[in-house]
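Entry 14. Structure prediction run on the chain below.
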Amino acid sequence: MDEHPTCMTTRPAKGHNKNERRGRAPGRSTVQVPRGYALSERVALFIDGSNLYNGMRENLQNTRVNMAEFIEQLRKDRPLVRTYYFNASLTDDYDEELRDGQHRFFESLRRIPYVTVRLGKLHRRHDGSLVEKGIDVALAVEALTLAWQDAYDTAILVSGDGDYVELVEGIKRTGKHVECAMFKNQSAGILVEYVDVFQPLDELDWGRILF
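Output returned:
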């Protein structure tokens, strides 16, 4: 992608401790597990950071996200193994304030229990545009490796990029389930067709996620 998050911010959800993030649902949770979900299935989240950022900016006009609450709503009271967040650091030719803001955002994610941040690089093309290098490959390797290790039962892919179709098929061949979570207008039709469950981000309780 040629657009990248520069000013996303996050904060931990109040009352979310490590026990809750391991799958022990907090008493105040109102998330209902729909038919077809199993409360016992272990989930792992794989977030394409720039894809999520662009979707939030276009649909919500707000990128100030309570990431812990976002994760809670997607896992739907199922045991969470870990969340993997993938993005690329801004290059030195970006404004220093923007780079510092992005760095603070990444550090805030690392302080959330059971969140791992994986960073790739931005490459400038001859026409001056920027493209991420290694993000999709890193996400695919992480998701497939953990699937073969039986580390989770269901992968939740937070992206609408149709390039992930082969990844989805690879995960399913290991006997795992795959869900896609993205805004409806940001989701490639072919990706939605291949996943087991599509979770429209439009239907989340954004009043509890944004600040």
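Residues 96-110 form the longest helix (15 residues).
Filed with the rest of this week's runs.
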